[in-house]
Amino acid sequence: MKSHFLLQDDITFLNFGSYGACPKEIFDDYIQWQYILEKEPVQFIAVNGPTYVNNSRLALAKFINCDAEDLIFIPNPTFGGNIIAKTSAEKGR
């Protein structure tokens, strides 16, 4: 598996849950998206961004066999846990 990552050969990286160490193929795709963003930032964020997000939601929904309207993207698991906790607390009032 190590050959799929950009990690130095002399380390054993075990922390895949918090940050860093994504597979090379994903990193290469990320760099391509970053180039698109850098070339025309306003177009990317304000005009094309909603389409990119919606296309991602549709692809993920198809992959996991669910309705795209039931999916939201969040920045990290802690954020998601906070949404659930807050929603649960508000329902308990």
Q: Quick gist of this model?
A:
The chain is mostly helical and 93 residues long. 59% of the residues lie in helices and 0% in strands.
Q: What is the strand and helix layout of this fold?
A:
Layout: H1 24-39, H2 41-64, H3 77-91
Helix pairs in contact: 1-2
Please describe what this structure looks like.
The protein has 93 residues and is an all-alpha fold. It folds into two domains: 1-39, no CATH class; 40-93, no CATH class. Helix content is 59%, strand content 0%. It has three helices and no strands. The protein has helices at residues 24-39, 41-64, 77-91. Helix 1 runs antiparallel to helix 2.
**Tally of separate helices:** 3
- Proportion of residues in extended strands: under 5%
> What's the structural domain tally?
2
Strands, total number: 0
Distance between the termini: 48 Å
Report the average pLDDT across residues: 90
- Structural class designation: mainly alpha
- Summarize the main sheet: none
| Overall spatial form | extended
Identify low-pLDDT runs.
none
N to C succession of SSEs: HHH
Specify Rg, calculated over alpha carbons.
18 Å
Q: State the helicity in percent bands.
A: 55-70%
